[in-house]
Amino acid sequence: MTVNLLDLDAPGLTAFVTSAGQKPFRARQLLHWLHQGCESDFTRMTDLAREFRQMLEREAVVAAPKVVSDSTAADGTRKWLLQVGTANAVEMVFIPETDRGTLCISTQAGCAMDCGFCSTGKQGFNRNLRLGEIIGQLWWAERTLRADARAAGNPDPGRMISNVVFMGMGEPLLNFDNVLPALRLMLDDHAYGLSRRRVTVSTSGIVPFIDRLAAECPVSLAVSLHAPTDELRDRIMPINRKYPLRELMAACRRYLRHSPRDSIMFEYVMLAGINDRAEDAQALITLLRDMPCKVNLIPFNPFPAADFARSSRETIRHFAETLTAAGLIATTRKTRGDDIDAACGQLAGRIEDRTRRAERVERREAAKARVGEGLVQSPGAPRAEPPLVEVAP
Q1: How do residues 218-273 score in pLDDT, each as one tens digit?
Q2: Rounded CA gap, 118 and 356, in Å?
Q3: Is 93 left (phi over 0), alpha (psi -120 to 50) or beta?
Q4: In angstroms, rounded to a whole number, what is the distance separating the alpha carbons of residues 62 and 132?
């Protein structure tokens, strides 16, 4: 059976190498070729023994997810659609800046969180991505960007991706068993050698796994907050009904004891008339007053069938000024790649939804319509729907 070497972390490579009768140090060499060199041709791995290279050609491959489409926005942001199975495709985005190159990667085909303002969440959920499908995004993007730089006349472009953010499709902490080895490969000096400060995991607030991340591989943490009260967050982020703000804030404080940064990043998408009012700003100040943090205000990026509108530029500016005047650090994220649907909240890909969310939404809307038309009797006040996923601690 052929082994995809991108599906193996450092211990897995060591086990593979030793099972082939090679010395353990060969695994370190192989790790270097695969991830520092982004090499897939075993014949080029010239410091490996010939017999070992011949064995690799027979029994192993280096296979990243297949690229379905490649789009570049006017601002240079680049989005790739990657096939992860016959019916599923995920998206990743590269954001070039003067002082850094940031890759936004996906961890699941779809997402079970059902956040109302996110295009991915509208599609439902299919499955977790494997290690090779996660680290394969970084491997393929780095390899491709280096090749493009060489083609443009730079003979030795060096590292093209300096930062990685787990902010693409899916909830990273619900795929912890594959995200963890991917993180360790990114940090490994024999692989990508990234700093813990330059790798960021974003979560909607899966409290038990925030604690596990702190214990096992602390990197920079971003929390998708988006509402300052439980009442509002329950409405737009169903996961809050399982892990309310009190528990989430406590987990963030615990994380700070291990974090490579001295603050937590809280992401806050600005939704017109929903969470952008003066009272929302004051509630957010109260919630975060004693938390070492930065607040990243994100202009809502519309998508088809979105139920929200973007806050006005003036509203966002005033909201940020209110937070700053109260002593919080508040920034407004620059929208990048929205002309190719690569901006925050717009990633959609192609998902075969095992949760059948669209069918359930259609039935729910039809039921509401029948109630409105008087065809059926209303059962009374609507009951809040539970989250679409059960999260095991």
Answers
A1: 999 999 999 999 999 999 999 999 999 999 999 999 999 999 999 999 999 999 99
A2: 17
A3: beta
A4: 9
Active site annotation includes 344: yes
> Pick the catalytic residue: 38, 104, 293, 344?
344
What is the dihedral sign for C-alpha 282, 286, 288, 292?
positive
How many residues are there in the chain? 393
Question: Catalytic annotation on 293?
Answer: no
Q: How far apart are CA 92 and CA 342, in angstroms?
A: 8
Beta bridge partners of 69: 81
**What is the per-residue burial (b if ≥16 Cβ within 10 Å, else e) of 1-13?**
eeebbbbbbbeeb
Which structure tokens are listed for 129? 């991505």
d(CA 37, CA 55): 20
- DSSP code for 172: G
Domains and CATH numbers, the chain: 3-61 (1.10.150.530), 66-340 (3.20.20.70)
Higher pLDDT: 364 or 198? It is: 198
In angstroms, the CA 93 to CA 96 distance is 10
Residue with tokens 């140090």: 25
pTM: 0.87
Q: Six-digit token pair at 282?
A: 């004051």
SS3 297: strand
Q: E-assigned strands of the chain? A: 3-4, 60-61, 66-72, 78-83, 89-96, 101-104, 108-110, 125-128, 163-166, 199-203, 220-224, 264-270, 293-299, 329-332
Q: Which is the catalytic residue, given 38, 91, 217, 252?
A: 91
pLDDT in tens, 109-136: 988 898 888 877 777 888 999 999 999 9
Cα separation, 145 vs 135, whole angstroms:
16
